[in-house]
Amino acid sequence: MSNHYLNSPGLSNANQNLVLAAWARSLDIEAHALHRANDDASAIQRFEIAAEHDLTDWDPNTATFIQLFNISLLYAPTWFLDAARNIDDDVLALESTMLQLGYEAGARSLGEEVLYYAEDIPYYEDAQLNVTSHSKDIRRLEAACPPDDIVAKPLDALDHYFTISAFGEHSEPIAGAGYDVFSDTVGQLAVLVAAAQRTKGYGTFMLARVAEECMFDGLIPQWVTPVGDEIGEKMANDVGFILSGYRTSVTFA
Q1: What secondary structure letter does DSSP report for 178?
Q2: Bridge partner residues of 247 (DSSP)
Q3: Domain parsing of the chain, residue ranges
Q4: What is the largest CA-CA distance in the chain?
Q5: What is the CATH number assigned to the segment(s) 129-222?
Q6: Measured CA angle at 222 (ends 35, 1), to 5 deg
Q7: pLDDT tens digits, one per residue of 166-191
Q8: Rounded Cα–Cα distance for residues 161 and 188 (Å)
Q9: In terms of C-beta density within 10 A (0-12 exposed, 13-18 middle, 19 or more buried), how is residue 7 classed?
Q10: Model confidence over 204-251: pLDDT tens digits?
């Protein structure tokens, strides 16, 4: 997780600022401070945000460390901020470090993740596919997936979602995708492919399609995948997403 890889020249400075502004709004901090620090690539600057109950998108019983472009953000209880203050970003980003700092509070890992953003999405032809936005189709798709795939938020609970299937009277859903609007500017994407339809390129197709829908709505697409998830990372690279950061989170007992 070297900071060397976090600066993303492929993502325009204007869109970097929009992404940073979205994070700033969600954390109720000043966006201009993030912008200024991001423009100075000579020294990574960490911003500390004390965990609060009145931030809609954040759980005060967690600690989250984010490396994004040329800055880093640490949202955590005050005691965790104090304990982490003198630890280098590359070390703090490790799951083991976060768990060690929160050991006495019963820390449990929520994982290490890669953050991607996109500006330009390749066009994928879908003339031979039926696109729907019905909850019943999402339920049918989820029934065709392993239970572990449905642990996260259901697709039909997202702000926008759709499924694809072949044309036909009783065609089963092949895949689905959707996104939540984060802080007015970013679309947080999700993709789900029926177990029997995997390794056929539908995941990449759906990621491109939902990212395109997201941009049509004036949002910057965000794709988050676990560190080491080769499939998720390959999908991102194939579609044209740009590696922009990392996120490590723990929750406390």
Answers
A1: E
A2: 66, 113
A3: 3-118, 129-222
A4: 62
A5: 3.40.630.30
A6: 70
A7: 877 678 999 999 999 999 999 999 99
A8: 12
A9: middle
A10: 999 999 999 999 999 999 999 999 999 999 999 999 999 999 999 999
